[in-house]
Amino acid sequence: MNVGSRKVPGSVLAGGLFLLLAFFGSPAPEVKWIDLAGVWLTAGALAGVLVLSLLGSTSSLWSRAAQLALLGSALLGALSLVHLEPISGSAKMGFWLLVISLGFAVWHVMQRFSQAKPKAVWLQMMFRIIVPGIFGAWFLAVWELVTIGFGIPRVLLPSPGLVGDAISGSLNILAADFQQTVVRAVIPGFVIGNLAGFAAALAADRWGFLGRGLLPVGNLVSAIPIIGIAPIMVMWFGFDWQSKAAVVVIMTFFPMLVNTMSGLRSAGAMELDLMRAIGASYWQSFLQVRLPTALPFIFNALKINSALALIGAIVAEFFGTPIVGMGFRISTEVGRMNMEMVWASIALAAVSGSVFYGLLAVAERRATFWHPSFRKPS
Amino acid sequence: MTQTVQPGSAVVHTANLSLEFSTDDGPVHALSNINLDIAPGEFISLIGPSGCGKTTLLRVIADLETHTGGEIQVNGVSPREARESRAYGYVFQAPALYPWRTVRRNVMLPLEIMGVSRPEREARCAQYLDLVNLGGFENKYPWQLSGGMQQRVSIARALSVEPELLLMDEPFGALDEITRDHLNQQLLELWRKTGKTVVFVTHSIPEAVFLSSRVVVMSPRPGQVIDDISCNLPGERTLDIRETPEFLEIAHRVREGLKAGHSYDDD
Amino acid sequence: MTMINRLVHQGTFLPVLTVVASLIVIWYAGAVYLNSTQLIDRYQKKGVDWDISRLAQDAWKMERPVLPAPHQVGVELKKTVIDKRVTSKRSLVYHAGITLSSSLLGFALGTLLGIALAIGIVYVTTLDRSLMPWIIASQTVPILALAPMIIVVLGSIGITGLFPKSVISMYLCFFPVVVGMVKGLRSPEPILIDQMRTYSASPTQIFFKLRLPASIPFLFASLKVAIALSVVGAIVAELPTGGQGGLGARLLTGSYYGQITMIWSALIVASVVSALLVTAVGRLERIALRKLNGGQAVAV
User: CA-CA to C188 of 20 to 30 Å: which in B173, C47, C84, C202?
Assistant: First the structure.
């Protein structure tokens, strides 16, 4: 179908169609759309998003920005609608058709932003963030709409709103859990485990015999579920953070060992020949050539280990803890069916994990800017 | 002495053809005002320094790039229609063979895609592998062959489509001098036997003059044609011809053209 | 001499043997050290004269050691793997079977999900831009922490048994598969894609004749990582479901009753299961690559 010379995108057609259909259904039993003032905001904003794609200046930045703002209003409108007395818990077909239409609009706006090729570099960066941002917002919105709209019992799946309340209502507990699990167990364990793995790799590199023995063993260990060591560590080192740190040390040791070893071996023959030709010592050639070429491998191990360390500490807490810690919180609150608190802890774990990973990624970018995967075309 | 070809009968016909890329630093004129007619049966070389648009021109003919101005026809239709009717065979700089397919199955790949029947595929594969002197290597994998042999497989594959037009983008650029000479002779032989139209991109003057019935010299910024030389060397040639005065004269003219068009302030 | 020289300076047999042997020696020494406090305490209470050899002997045959000696774990393994009937609830083979089935189901589901997502990401730009960052972020979330909740929530809506455990394995598995498959499907050089265009091949033909075969080596590299993860997922998922069995449940039971030998033997069986699975995938990889490449892994 064409308007003027322009082809109408399928997502706009579908979105418009569902928006129309929504008004033939009713939003909730014995309620008409006309009775709900808020609907006009949602539907109007939604229609605006779709119509903007049919207008002349669709390639301009302003049209995209306007679409984004309208989409945001439509999402907020739908979220406020679902919390209204008649709809909450008993939303009917009309409402869900509206949500589907909203879904097509979301898809359409993501499409427009991901197909756009702005000239300015900062805009490109913005667009790279906006698209996953829209997706994340939509994911949370659907979660909220579905849990509230269908009235899903909160012991099954609490809405993001309730989880948010739980987070803001128990900041003290979460901070204590963070302190116990991340600050006292994960960070020391991560540091010790990585240093030990790195040192072992250096030794293995210096003495080839040891290296040839350790690499196959290290590879074998990477295939086994090492997390099973957790209950043993809890019995050896007690319930407090020491046993968790020990699990983290063991889990992070082998990835660092194996990666550093293969990193140190990755130096090119030509570069090494050059070092030999200018009479460099073992340590000179190590510092100038082999360590820099090993850095990407070492960062890879650090990133793998950041996820493993958090997992190790949390799972170890399932086997026994003092009454604080993220793993402890999750397992006890599951037992009490207090799901908001469980999700709050999971959110805390997710944020800690992402921040941890993000910091490592930034450090990697700084330290290995010369690596092909980071090079920017000049 | 520019050639004139009847527009209707031209295999490739371009008029004021141009192509602009837009980049962060403003537009780049990859091709500008190209007027070229290629007659059936010609062996035409596009020669020039890197960045002169010779490969781009070949890719426009093959519909791997789209021109932004002027017009172009391949076999009297648009490049896109020509591509969709599989009117040409294309040989890339690298052999571009599939490591998981044997030589035979590599040659048969385009035929499979076009839905040619199995017996026909087998027959053509055998025929064209023989033509490039690779009979007996059907069941080898490409990585078991030398670079020159791999490029011959890739030529056999382009021929197996039985196109009237063969587009070759520096096919021997990555090979050593000796292998290249050998393949040049074989290619010439092939051209005489099959009478196909060949458009050949190269940056080697001896190669261009030795192979071609016509050499088109191009220069960069903007990519344009600066000379169009026909070579009236005898049809039967050996490598010795490269020492004859006629050959040297043409080579000299090509070199002069390249010099004239080349600005030395570049990269 | 030359024979010995070659063994020391080349190959991995002797070095690996040395490393494994020293690990066992360290283990025995560790058993003496870790159990000594308890034993010396006991000696002093009873007023027994003791020396190092007596201590070592006693440390290696303690009823409830802090660290059991390797041979004690061996005896426990023989008792629970070979002597018990496979159907018995005390047989580790029975428990390994439970863990194996849920990790295999999770592995299969995760692989399918991963491949489907990768195809979507490679072919739909919007999915690439919107989904890929979240897929990467999903792995910085310690998903194993979700295990107890997923089990309990799925259990409360009547879904129990194999499937909830497989969900955890699936979540761990899909990530390496997505990443590997996206890389693999994008691995063909531009020249090969151009070539397909010159044949005016359809998108389906490009997928089946070029992208898919090119991705197979990447897929298998990911599968080897994924299958090891699926075992981890299954074991952790078994922790909150103690009653239903599985190696994870054995770990938890051992930890409740202070049975360290039981934990060690469960751990070793888990390692064997995992190593066997990884080896099996490795074998499959070799067969597949031989079919594909005539026996050689070649980058496209």
Answer: B173
pLDDT bracket for residue B1 (50, 70, 90): very low
DSSP reduced 3-state for B70 = strand
Q: For B132-182, what is each residue's pLDDT tens digit?
A: 888 888 888 888 888 888 988 988 888 888 888 889 998 888 788 888 888
Predicted TM-score (pTM) of this structure: 0.79
Closest CB to B94: pick one of C191, C197, C294.
Answer: C191
Cα-Cα-Cα-Cα dihedral sign, residues A165, A166, A171, A172: positive
Domain boundaries defined on chain C? 2-67, 92-293
Q: What are phi and psi of B16, to 5 degrees?
A: 50, 35
Q: Tell me what pLDDT residue C119 has.
A: 92
Q: Work out the pLDDT band at B263, boundaries 50, 70, 90.
A: low
In chain A (378 residues long), the average pLDDT of successive 10-residue segments reads 59 82 77 74 80 68 83 85 78 83 88 79 82 90 88 84 89 89 89 93 83 78 78 82 88 88 81 77 80 86 86 84 84 84 88 87 81 56
With beta carbons less than 8 A apart as the criterion, state whether A94 and A29 touch.
no
Task: Judge whether B110 is closer than 8 Å to chain C, CB to CB.
Answer: yes
Among candidate residues C81, C107, C75, C77, the one with its CA nearest the CA of residue C94: C81
> Taking the CB of residue C127, how many other CB atoms lie within 10 A of it?
20
Please report the number of interchain residue pairs, chain A to chain C, with beta-carbon separation below 8 angstroms.
Answer: 171
Q: Is C231 within 8 Å of C163 (Cβ atoms)? A: no
Contact list, B112 vs chain C (CB under 8 Å): 209
Residues B235, B43 contacting (CB under 8 angstroms): no
Pairing of strands B88-91, B69-74: unpaired
Question: Does ipTM top 0.95?
Answer: no
Question: CB-CB: which of B86, B141, B143 is closest to C199?
Answer: B86
Q: Does B63 touch chain C (CB under 8 A)?
A: yes
For chain A, give every residue range classified as CATH 1.10.3720.10: 168-367
The domains located in chain B, with CATH, are 1-87+201-267 (3.40.50.300)
Specify the pLDDT at position C3. 63
For residue B262, is it left (φ>0), alpha (ψ between -120 and 50) or beta?
A: beta
Reported as a single tens digit per residue, the pLDDT across C66-79 is: 778 788 778 877 77
- DSSP state, B229? E
Instruction: Please indicate if any CB of chain A lies within 8 Å of the CB of C125.
Output: yes
**B200-237: pLDDT as tens digits:** 999 888 888 888 888 898 888 888 888 888 887 776 77
Pick the residue of C103, C140, C235 with the most A CBs within 10 A to test the interface with A by mutation.
C140
Does residue A311 belong to the interface with chain C, where contact is any CB pair within 8 Å?
yes
Please give the pLDDT value at position C300: 42
Place of tokens 């050290």: C33
Q: What is the sign of the dihedral through the CA atoms of B73, B75, B79 and B81?
A: positive
The shortest CB-CB distance from C195 to any of B84, B96, B99 is to: B96
pLDDT (tens digit per residue) in C23-38: 888 888 888 887 777 7
The domain made up of A168-367 has a fold known as: MetI-like fold (1.10.3720)
> Is C247 within 8 Å of chain A by CB?
yes
Pairing between strand B26-38 and B88-91? unpaired
Residue B12 has pLDDT above 90, yes or no: no
Q: Give all chains having 3 or more CB-to-CB distances under 8 Å with chain B.
A: C
B100–C contact, CB cutoff 8 A: yes
Closest residue on chain C to B163 (Cα)? C199
**Among residues B167, B151, B235, which one has the least CA distance to residue B202?**
B167
Chain C contact partners (≥3 CB pairs within 8 A) = A, B
CB A238 within 8 A of CB C66: no
Question: Is C251 an 8 Å CB contact of chain A?
Answer: yes
Which residues in chain C (202-241) have CB-CB distances under 8 A to chain A?
A: 228, 231-232, 235-236, 239-240
